Amino acid sequence: MPKIFDSELRFMQIVWEFAPVGSGELVKLAFERLGWKKSTVYTVIRRLAERGVLANRGGIIHALVTREEAQREEGVELLSRSFGGSLPGFVAAFANAKAISREDAEAIRRIIDAYEEGER
Prior knowledge:
Elements: H1 6-18, E1 21-22, H2 23-34, H3 38-50, E2 54-57, E3 60-63, H4 67-83, H5 87-97, H6 102-116
Antiparallel strand pairs: 1-3, 2-3
């Protein structure tokens, strides 16, 4: 999975929302949402294309990495960097900082149950 840096991730949110999208339209969207100039947009498109995150086919931009893949990679990196890879440590820190709703707790239980049953 290619690394997507923070500013690129904000840009990719636009790509995922609108792709396939023309590069001209993407310039307009990035200016509206991020305040980026045309040159910045084209530089980021080129860099992300070089790393295999997106493709520029005839001026039409396509995402090659899904939002879910990027989120999964970000989660794994956060877990590793901030919690030494400890999922229980992350959950404990999160639960101590913010109340977990009954719905969220049930969703977490379903994920764990599915994992234990080999349904991942």
